[in-house]
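Entry for the shared binder. Reason: the reviewer on the internal report wants the predicted structure included alongside the sequence.
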Amino acid sequence: MRIPVEIVLFLLVERHFLSTYMSVHGTNFDVLSGLSAPFIALFAFRNGVRNKPVLVIWNVIALALLLNVVITAAFCIPSPIQQLAFDQPNVAVLYFPMNLLPTVVVPIVLFAHVIAFRQLLNRK
């Protein structure tokens, strides 16, 4: 899910609808979660054995990257709390369908990480 979203964000930055902060040229390295997920899965489930520490560490890093982009995005939206990107605020998320990103996509990704943590910490 993250790779297509990051491609769209990159295109919106190129067309000046989002701040550079929201791309890999700025502070958004969330695409690393999506790119590394298949490799982490191969490594963590090698030989039919689950490597729990690898999954927990990767999940913490992915959550930190998600938190980073959410905080950055909040500070780049034209609003009273805007602290970044005064030259090019994040105006794309004010319009459909891009307003689905903070209202639907980000909560789904966050929920997936929370469920993964729950499963990792509850199973032996």
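Summary line for the report: Residues 66 and 79 are 21 Å apart (CA to CA).
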